[in-house]
Amino acid sequence: MDKRTLLPGLLILFAWLTACSGHQWNNPYVAEDTEKNILYTVFTERPKHLDPVQSYSSNEIQFTAQIYEPPLQYHYLKRPFVLIPATAEEIPVVKYWDVHGNQLPGDAQPDDIAYSVYEISIKAGIHFQPHPAFARDAQGHWLYHDLNRQEMASVRKLADFSQTGTRELVAEDYVYQIKRLAHPKLHSPIYGLMADYITGLREYADVLKQADQNRPEEKTFLDLRDYQLEGVQVVDRYTYRITIKGKYPQFVYWLAMPFFAPIPWEADHFYSQQGLKQKNITLDWYPVGTGPYMLTENDPNSRMVLEKNPNFHDEHYPAEGMPGDEENGLLVDAGKKLPFIDKIIFTREKESIPRWNKFLQGYYDASGIGSDSFDQAVQLVGQGEATVTEAMAEQGIRLETAVAASTYYMGFNMLDPVVGGRNERERESARKLRQAISIAVDYEEFISIFANGRGMPAQSPISPGIAGYREGEEGINPVVYDWVNGEPKRKSIQAAKALLAEAGYPDGIDQRTGAPLILYFDVTARSAEDRSRLDWMRKQFQKLNIQLVVRSTDYNRFQDKIRKGNAQIFEWGWNADYPDAENFLFLLYGPQRKVGNSGENAANYLNAEYDRLFEQMKNMEDGPQRQQIIDRMIEILRFDAPWLWGYHPKDYGLYHAWYQNVKPNRISNNNLKYFKIDTAVRTQKRAEWNEPVIWPVVLILAVLAVSFVPAVNAFRRHESSTAVRAASSDTTG
């Protein structure tokens, strides 16, 4: 190697490295997407159900709420939450009727009301997303409703169907979906509740079950249009009517949930083909909706993609909001057509550290805040007000907070002989055991350590901001707290140990067997942060000398265990579906038990007085009388302690400067259509934050190259010397 070639070579290498730096080396996305109108976000748990009749988890509704359109929705900006039309022409006005068929006035007493009737008219001109279920040939015949073996063999995913079609949304599509709540092959989590209200739904389930049993084996499609449901009827092309037993004021909120979104019979027929089911081409995997987005890629272990629905009808950004919304830039896009973003890419991230790092690099547009990154992101100023740190502010990152209408709790399976009891003696023992644990598990400490103070210990299932919630001394749980110096104080561990002894486990030893008490805790924990939290939980039980065995699994397996009643103790949470106390209290209503009823009462709690009061309370308007009933229900729950009430979280979210129109909430889930991305700013900031530092690499290469020069020179001298000796030898010869 000639020294004279070394420097030019290094200059060429440096120029090549510099040229390559135009696209960030650490960019996890393809280069051609850099300036496209795409929102980048994450999901942590794979969704199990995307069929709106079965889906009921927060990790699922983040997709389904963008795809399906129930008739109603919540105003994006107004607080308290206000229902507005989605596909409906207007909010339906309920009409009441007595047992003799006479219409009653709007202020009729609940006991006088035999039926409530909701008549819903939808807007004309709304169309479904493009989908092969609607595809026809030139003669109008369905292309894919009766696939033969050869055609089926050529299909592996939905995109393999070359033709798609669409049609207008009609009232029958909403009626069809409500009928599906009673389908014998589907397991809707709200069937039990709705069967108590929708006239004839329970009997309709029996009709469908019989029809399914009598169906020839080769006929895979049960056409629900052939079976009439008494309480749900088509009035005309754009109008349908729902008849409810008695009075249920909260029913109108359900009309804003995906359970009541439209499903076209064509999609049901298409997906019922046995060959497609075997290939996992089902409504649970490939939704069909009229919403602003459609699911175009579904790899729940890695990545899911929503793209703008080309058939989405006219909907516009709200023109009015709350005081402060205009100043905060939330009305800049008033009146503009939705949605603003073309594509949303969800990447599955199980671990918090890579998720956080990619957010700081600009590769995720928003981020939650884990406890390990809280101090880096948030500082408290003034009267405990939270704001971003200087480092975050320099990057243009802003903090958005909102009190969540949510509760996180630890539940006891009341069917378990140890924590629930099988007879009166066992139930009394189990109740005192649950009360003792309720005192021992210090949720004040939990919130401080693992939530960085973002929450408040729960005194009941009802979260703050919901009618029925009590504050101050009258709102504390007297089983767990005393009221001392104007604030709640958790009872001592000695009080918990006394209850434990009364339960038959003095110092954590089972009196009957002499063996230590061992309890089992089912969770979906995976990360290092989760392990720390579980270690903390073990220590809480250890205060009572109880051994807590953690059984960790994935979320789908966890759901199966809860559904079958195979968990002993578990942790879960609930985000309110609608802003009413009934939506929290029904979580412990006996007929809503998971086991046997597939409801949302995961603890399988049963108390006759509580159930009677719930049935009375649920049909009442808010007021002093309803509050009195709620207070008694809460008193029963606190005494029975089927849950450790856990805590109510406060949501903190970080958003980059280019992420606009954000007003967080957990009631309205169809919010992606309102968001906007400034792609030019994002591209610029990504380039600034991820510019590779090349000179150290070049310097190292230069040092290495120079270090080889003596060796190269020595090698050249050796070669020259060898050549001279060889020439001399030849001459001598």
TrEMBL record:
Keywords on record: Membrane, Signal, Transmembrane, Transmembrane helix, Transport
Gene Ontology MF terms in the entry: peptide transmembrane transporter activity
Membrane-traversing stretches: 693-715
Database matches in SUPFAM superfamilies: Periplasmic binding protein-like II
Record-linked PROSITE patterns: PROKAR_LIPOPROTEIN
Database matches in CDD domains: PBP2_NikA_DppA_OppA_like_18 (cd08505)
Solute-binding protein family domain ranges (all copies): 167-593
Localization per Swiss-Prot or TrEMBL: Cell envelope
GO biological process: peptide transport
Signal peptide residues on this chain, from the entry's feature table: 1-21
Taxonomy, superkingdom: Bacteria
One Pfam family matching this protein: SBP_bac_5
Family: Belongs to the bacterial solute-binding protein 5 family.
Name under which the protein is recorded: ABC-type transport system substrate-binding protein
Organism whose genome encodes this protein: Nitrosomonas oligotropha
